Predict the 3D structure of the following.
Amino acid sequence: MFVKGTITLSKGFQTWKAMVHANEEKMRKIGFRIVYAGTPADDGSQLTVIMQFDSPEALDHFKNDAELTRERVEAGVVMETSMMTPMTEQSFMNFPA
């Protein structure tokens, strides 16, 4: 399942990106990967991320992992701004392959 996230970053993209790379193994164990992550050219604090989860349970595990949440906050994620929107796979396209 694909999920679109929009999040405000208080410490910028590079700090968030370093946290993601440091948690690669945890992400694999939970069962998700980042398909895309980026910020507008004129605002490094507004992150858009597309994630692919192996299952709805993997998404729940991600949302409820206290240690990962703590690390995200330390990397500048403003949790109160986090919006997670499940996407339909019937409306997803990655082109050209």
Notes: The chain has one domain: 2-85. The radius of gyration is 13 Å. The helical segments are 12-22, 24-30, 56-64, 66-74. The first helix runs from residue 12 to 22.
